[in-house]
Amino acid sequence: AVPSVRLSPAARSLFDEPLAIAVQGLGPQQQVTLRTSLRDETGELFQACARYQAGDDGELDLTRCPALPGGSFSGLEPMGLLWALQPQKPFRRLVKRDVQSPFLLQLEVLEGHGDPPGRLLARAQHERAFLRDGVRRIPVREGRIRATLFLPPGNGPFPGIIDLYGTGGGLPEYRACLLANNGFAVLALAFYGYEDLPKEMKEFHLEYFEEAVNYMLQHTEVKGPGIGLLGISKGGDLCISMASFLKGITATALINGSVANVGAVLRYKDISIPPLGVNAKRITLNKAGIADIIDVLNNPLEGPDRQSFIPLEKAECRFLFIVGQDDRNWKSEFFAVEGSKRLQAHGKEKPEIVCYPGAGHYIEPPFFPMCAASMHLLVGKPVVWGGEPKAHCEAQIDAWQQIQAFFRKHLTGKPSGTSSKL
C-alpha cells in the first residue's frame, strides 16, 4: 500500500473548526514524522512537527494515537500540528491580513524519527478559510468611521457587535469575520494607524467610537435594542470607556483588557481621562533576554493614577472578562477583579470573570498558535506575552465558546445551547 493522508473535512475548513488528520497505508508500527507548514501573507514560514508510530494495521489516526516525545508537542493532541505552528524567524506572530483568501496548510509524512527526518512518504494540502460561504464583507467609510462590516448569510436582523484590537493599530478583520460565520453582524473597527486615522496613539475621542455605535444601531441588518462590544488588550479598555459613556451598549466582553485608560488620553465632550502612569525602569529581562513589561504600569488604585480608572459603574451593560492568568503584558486578573469590585460597590451586577491558568496575553480565536514574544509598538522592542502553548490553545477554544454564549444570551435573549442557529 502507498501511504496517503486523509483529512476531514477533505479540502477546506474554517480556521476555528477542528481538522481530523489520519495517515493510512503505512507499515505495522511504522515510525513517521508529520510536519505542517503554512506561510502568512508576508511570506513568513510557520512550522510544527510531531513523531508518531502507526498501529498494527498501518493506520495512524491523530484522534487515537499520541505523539511521541521529540517533536513540537507530545501526547494525544489531534490539533497539535496546527496550534504548535511556530515562526521560523523569532518574534513573528501569525495573523490573517486578508480574510478573503485562505491560509494554505501543507502536511507532509516523513520516514522515521531522525533529525532531520527521512524521505517524503505522502503529502496533502488543505485550505484553512476565514469567510464562510454567504458571509458578506462590506468596507465601511461613513463619516469618520474606517471599518469593515461582516454580515452572516440569510435574513437578518442579526445581533450586532463592534470588534476592537489593540496597540497594533490597522484594521484586523479575522476575529470579526469568524464571529460573523457564527451568526453575528460584526463591525471590525480601526481606531488608529489606518488610512486617514491618526498615525500614533496620542489621544482618542469617544465621539469617533460613538459614530460607530450609532452606525450599528441604525443598520437595518442589526437587531436592537443594543449592541455588544468585544475588545482585546488596548481594545478592551476602549470598550469599557465606550460602555461607560455611550448609549445603546448591552454587553461588553474583554479579552485581557484593562479597567484603567492606558497609553493615550481619552476625551469625550468635556471629560478627559489621563493614561495610567508608566515607569520603564520596571522593565525586566527574562532568561532569554527578552523584555518583560508586566510591572511597567502604575497601580490605578493609588494617588493621581486613580484618575485613569474608567468609571465603568456608569455602564448599563453586562460585562464578561476573559483572563489569561499568565498574561505578561499587564495584570489582567487584577484589572478584572478591581472592575468587579467597583461595579458591585455601586450596586451593579457582578461581571462574569473566566480565568485560564497557563494562558498568555493574545487569546485569539481557536487554533491560532500561541505567540510567546513579538514586537510591541509602544515599547519599541520585542516583549514576552506569556502562556504555555497547550494550555493557551485550550483557553482559546473555551473562550471562543464563552464569548459567543455571552453575546447570544445578552443580545438575543436566547440561552446558549439551544438548537436553533441564530
UniProtKB/TrEMBL annotation:
InterPro entries the record matches: AB_hydrolase_fold (IPR029058), Acyl-CoA_thioEstase_long-chain (IPR016662), BAAT_C (IPR014940), Thio_Ohase/aa_AcTrfase (IPR006862), Thio_Ohase/BAAT_N (IPR042490)
Residue stretches making up the Acyl-CoA thioester hydrolase/bile acid-CoA amino acid N-acetyltransferase domain: 16-142
GO molecular function, one term: fatty acyl-CoA hydrolase activity
Entry keyword Membrane: no
Record flagged with keyword ATP-binding: no
Gene Ontology annotations of biological process type: acyl-CoA metabolic process; fatty acid metabolic process
Domain BAAT/Acyl-CoA thioester hydrolase C-terminal: 205-412
Keywords of this entry: Fatty acid metabolism, Lipid metabolism
Pfam families xrefs: BAAT_C (PF08840), Bile_Hydr_Trans (PF04775)
Residues of the active site: 233 (charge relay system), 327 (charge relay system), 361 (charge relay system)
Record family assignment: Belongs to the C/M/P thioester hydrolase family.
PANTHER family: ACYL-COENZYME A THIOESTERASE 6 (PTHR10824:SF17), ACYL-COENZYME A THIOESTERASE-RELATED (PTHR10824)
Stated name of the protein: ACOT1 thioesterase
Lineage: Eukaryota, Metazoa, Chordata, Craniata, Vertebrata
